[in-house]
Prior knowledge:
The chain is α+β, with helices and mostly antiparallel strands. The chain is built from six helices and seven strands. The chain has helices at 27-36, 84-87, 145-166, 181-191, 196-203, 208-226; strands at residues 2-10, 19-24, 46-51, 91-102, 108-124, 131-136, 243-244. Strands 1-3-4-5-6 form a five-stranded mixed β-barrel. α3 runs parallel beside α6.
Amino acid sequence: MTVRLPLFPLNSVLFPGLVLPLNVFEERYRAMMRELLKTPEEDPRRFAVVAIRDGHEVAVAAPGMPDPTAAPERGPAAGFGPDPLAAFHSVGCVADAATIRERADGTFEVLATGTTRVRLVSVDVSGPFLTAELEELTEEPGDEAGALAEGVLRAFRQYQKRLAGARERSVSTTADLPDQPSVVSYLVAAAMMLDTPTKQRLLQAPDTASRLRDELKLLRAETSIIRTLPSLPASDLTSGPTSLN
């Protein structure tokens, strides 16, 4: 089963269930938001988020960028080379925009939530913004997902404690964490301080159990590393910083 949706490339990975704040100022993405606003409020306003493999989240010569003398790149595929499909990772996530607020200057403040993993089949550059044909991916549990989730939660709590100690901050021990294996796997993948290729690897894991096994190894390794570091930046469990697009 495939679906066609607007495509929003980012230099980060979105996971199902996680919150995505966006500051939308480029014309191609403003056009996307104007189109999404035509969807009735009672219907989902959906677009797909994919991580950029090779290219720029913001067109290089856009206003405010380092080279104001260069001719600005324009069009829906600006910054992504002659073959946008090759510029993006193949697995992304559908985002449901709960809030799309237009500012007086024509830019948008958007708050969306990841819903379903999708595989990128093709990219259409013929309109004012990128659209893509996407194959929805089923999340299979895999073997021993429940037991693995319990182990990952224990390791994640230890990781939190080490992280809080490195930042000289306290961590709440009463915060409720989910127990559904797939939700655990996505939350932990988003909350850990990992580079984009590693997060992408976790997003496209073949099943929940495989993702949890990978996370267990990463948590143990990262917790060990944190012991030797004097300080680390803060990390939010459900959202990242607002992406400047």
